[in-house]
TrEMBL record, chain A:
UniProt protein name: Malonate transporter subunit MadM
Top-level taxonomic group: Bacteria
Species in which this protein is naturally found: Emticicia aquatilis
Malonate/sodium symporter MadM subunit N-terminal domain location: 5-252
InterPro entries linked to this entry: Mal/Na_symporter_MadM, Mal/Na_symporter_MadM_N
Pfam families, sorted: MadM
Entry's transmembrane regions: 12-30, 42-60, 81-99, 105-128, 135-157, 163-185, 197-217, 229-248
Gene this chain is encoded by: madM
Keywords assigned by UniProt, alphabetized: Membrane, Transmembrane, Transmembrane helix
GO MF term (any one): sodium:malonate symporter activity
TrEMBL record, chain B:
A cellular component annotation (GO) from this entry: membrane
Alphabetized NCBIfam families for the sequence: malonate_madL
Protein name stated in the entry: Malonate transporter MadL
Keyword Repeat: no
Transmembrane domains' residue ranges: 26-50, 62-80, 92-113
């Protein structure tokens, strides 16, 4: 038993390839037999991934889902930011530059609006939750952008740790909800073409949520959403601790 | 050769991400600004140029397409490593602070998309 565990741990990445292959195979069968292909196999596979992450989290109390269980640590490598970004870049092969150029300025506008609207949404919720100081409001608003913008902003303006934790949690909730929700709301927001995918990426911003959500909806849209979303976290880290924090300070002192 | 394709992809990745890192430094943020986006644009331009010059053979292209096809499996692995426990058990304010922006932005999407379609007609 110990030999097997050690072996699986040592060969993590390859083991992850095998397990993800099995997950996707099973998802294909479920999609075929039980949903009549109405729910795409990739959406089911991603959902199964999230369930595994939950189980791993509950079992180890760690932060990296199933990857915190040693024999499944290869999931951390396979799903880590390096391979993820590498694969995202490869999706640009076959994407249309003309479409990207045409949607350019609306994409930029959607980024700006996405940050400001998410921030304000987060601030309103924080106000309802009883927070009234500019630092906490800004940090929670930043967390409503992405789970990276939250702690970066909080650290920059000196928020205390429970507010930071809250802002990270808000960002994680957003990422998970976008992942699960995108295929279901796609119909209602007209998310079936590259233009809308770029606007979607800019407004939602959470790279993991946007790319996973689009993959579950229509994988052809992934490069367009990813292109705008990849600017979001950086711009969020720029605006939240500066302009938006000053705005909060002016209003709430 | 397959490795050429993988190397082209890696070239775009490295240049794009480095650019994003430097851009972050320049505007004074502790984050990568658009690195993946720059890498994608570079790949589009490069593959376009290679195609015109007829440098891309099937195998070279397969080196890039392999990763293209691996994208969804990687995303599945990524979702299996998300901090779902925190998301599920994070309490009312965190859940609301995560969900409210999604609703606001989802409503905005059709409006902005319309804007981009209108400009398309010009």
């Amino acid at each position: 038993m110990e030999i097997i565990a050690k072996f699986l741990e040592k060969n993590g990445l390859v083991v992850a390839f095998l397990l993800v292959g099995i997950i996707i195979y099973v998802s294909g069968i479920i999609s075929d037999k039980f949903t009549n292909k109405k729910i795409p196999a990739s959406a089911i596979a991603i959902l199964m991934g999230l369930v595994l992450a939950y189980i791993g989290g509950v079992y180890t109390k760690g932060e990296k889902g199933i990857a915190d269980i040693k024999i499944f640590s290869g999931f951390g490598t396979m799903g880590g930011s390096m391979l993820r970004d590498f694969a995202i870049v490869s999706t640009a092969m076959g994407a249309s530059f003309i479409v990207m150029k045409r949607t350019g300025w609306v994409g930029a506008l959607s980024l700006f609006l996405g940050i400001v609207l998410s921030f304000l949404g987060g601030v309103v919720v924080a106000l309802l939750g009883g927070y009234t100081d500019a630092i906490s409001l800004t940090t929670i608003g930043a967390g409503a952008c992405t789970y990276i913008v939250g702690p970066v902003t909080g650290a920059a303006i000196g928020a205390n740790s429970d507010v930071m934790a809250l802002s990270i949690a808000a960002g994680v909730v957003k990422a998970v909800a976008v992942t699960i929700g995108t295929p279901f709301i796609a119909k209602y927001i007209g998310l079936n073409n590259p233009h809308t995918a770029m606007v979607f990426g800019g407004l939602m911003g959470t790279t993991s949520g946007v790319t996973a959500g689009l993959a579950a909806t229509d994988s052809k849209l992934v490069p367009y959403g990813a292109l705008t979303a990849t600017f979001y976290t950086g711009l969020g880290c720029l605006f939240c601790p500066s302009v938006l924090f000053l705005l909060m300070k002016m209003i709430f002192g | 050769m397959i490795i050429y394709g993988v190397a082209i992809l890696a070239f775009c990745y490295v240049i794009g991400q480095l650019f994003g890192e430097f851009l972050g430094k320049i505007i004074g943020v502790d984050a990568n600004v658009g690195g993946v986006g720059f890498a994608m644009l570079l790949l589009i331009l490069l593959s376009d140029w290679f195609n015109k010059k007829d440098y891309l053979d099937r195998n070279t292209e397969n080196g890039i397409m392999f990763w293209n096809q691996m994208y969804i499996p990687i995303v599945v692995a990524m979702s299996a490593t998300q901090n779902v426990r925190v998301a599920v058990s994070s309490g009312f304010i965190a859940v609301l602070a995560g969900l409210v922006p999604i609703v606001i932005c989802a409503i905005t999407i059709p409006l902005l998309a319309k804007l981009s379609k209108n400009t398309q007609l010009d």
